[in-house]
Amino acid sequence: MLENSELLLRALEPEDIDLLYQWENDARLWHLSNTIKPFSRYDLEQYVLNSNLNVFESKQLRLMIDLKEKGKRITAGCIDLFDFDFVNLRAGVGLYISETFRGKGIASKAIDLLVEYAHKKLHLHQLYCSITIDNEASKKVFRKSGFTESGKRKQWIRKENEWLDEIFYQLILG
After folding, report:
1. Does some domain include residue 108?
2. 3-state SS, residue 55
3. Considering the domain boundaries, does residue 161 fall inside one?
4. Is 144 left (phi over 0), alpha (psi -120 to 50) or beta?
5. 146: left (phi > 0), else alpha (psi -120 to 50), else beta?
6. In the chain, how many domains are there?
7. Does some domain include residue 174?
8. Is residue 47 domain-resident?
9. CA angle 113, 147, 61 (to 5 degrees)
10. How many CA atoms lie within 13 A of 141 on its CB side?
11. What average pLDDT does the chain have?
12. What is the 3-state secondary structure (H, E, C) of 86-150?
């Protein structure tokens, strides 16, 4: 497990299926993940059951973000490494914080834990993310964690009847 005094990043458990079902089927977010149809509970169960593959095999890693509060763990979101490239030692970062927990510094703390893990344990050279131009909160949190803007894709994401630019951010780890 990856943790600090406030957060725990942990592997998926069967108990997470209900949360994942809720989050993955929120149609308001589908434009961010190129999702075009709902996920079945069965598909998510299979995803959780196969999440034991290591990042070198599956080229992705999802960790749940738990808050440590008074001896209890409360799941606030999830953070992903995806498109893991073991030749060029890089991976993308995806992040979701449940609406209840937004604006409390959880996202930047989770990113910082993931960055440390990616650098010290996976020996990655860089991390990257893509953020739509209208997502000020995500741009702010990734910049706070040291990511810098390195490019823009014009009209890259379709959100309902409009086209959004997508900003590409990178963090060179060394």
Report:
1. yes
2. helix
3. no
4. alpha
5. left
6. 1
7. no
8. yes
9. 45
10. 23
11. 91
12. CCCCEEEEEEEECHHHCCCCHHHHHHHHHHHHHHHCCCCCEEEEEEECCCHHHHHHHHHCCCEEE
**Backbone region of residue 147 per phi and psi (left: phi > 0; alpha: psi in -120 to 50; beta: other values):** beta
Q: What is the pLDDT of residues 21-80, one digit of tens each?
A: 888 887 787 777 777 788 888 888 887 777 776 776 778 899 999 999 877 889 999 999
d(CA 34, CA 38): 12
Confirm if 167 and 139 have CB atoms less than 8 A apart: yes
Residue written as tokens 């909160």? 137
Within 8 A by CB and 6+ apart from 38, the residues are 25, 27
The CATH number of the domain holding residue 112 is: 3.40.630.30
**pTM of the predicted protein model:** 0.89
Residue with tokens 């997502």: 135
173 DSSP assignment = -
User: What is the domain range of residue 44?
Assistant: 2-127
CA distances, 24 to each of 11, 41, 64, 116, 152 (Å): 17, 10, 14, 27, 26
